[in-house]
Write a structure and sequence with these properties.
Layout: H1 2-61, E1 78-83, E2 100-103, E3 109-116, E4 122-129, E5 133-135, E6 141-142, E7 147-152, E8 159-160, E9 167-173, E10 176-188, E11 198-199, E12 202-208
Antiparallel strand pairs: 1-3, 2-10, 3-10, 4-9, 4-12, 5-6, 5-11, 7-8, 7-10
Length: about 210
Amino acid sequence: MRRVLSEKNLEENKKAKDKIEAEMPRKIVGQLLNRKLDGIKKVLTFFIFFYPFLFTPLIFSQASDNATLSLTVTVAARYKIEVSNSVISFTRSSWSGQTQAIPANEGPFSLSIKMTSNYGSKVNVWLVANSDLKDLTTGYTIPIGSISWTAQGLGFYSGQLSKISPALVAGLSGSGIFNGTLSFAFADDPMNFAPGSYQATVTILVAGI
């Protein structure tokens, strides 16, 4: 009887042991999983909590500032006069006894006006003579009106010098480069002009209208 009970007890103990051994891995795995989850939660919590601080330098590095720069460009009206030569001379080489037009020794005179002006604005070009032709040795004079010219070129006019008022040589409009050719001539009057070397100065003047 005792032996039967003993064997029965042994069998029950074995089943209990097997049950415990079967349930033990589940508990251990469960505990390990709980621990892992706790660890993961801490890691995630750490990451989320510190996220703004990790990226704050990047955000602040994109900050910028600006200022306004005012630009001013002033373009004034400008005029430039260019001439082919600065001396014009005439020579009476023979005496015919008659009034004649003697062309300049230098040939045609080139006059170029380069200008920057307002749209639609107009300028005039003048030849200004303040005195007659004069021989500095004898004091004899020849009227400055004895010098005339014929003009070629858009906006350029033929004319005659005068010591009383400026002589208009060109009327121009707008900005650009304006080229004209002046062929000067001296109206010789051999009966009234004594031999000598006569001189005068003429100023080329550009003035807005």
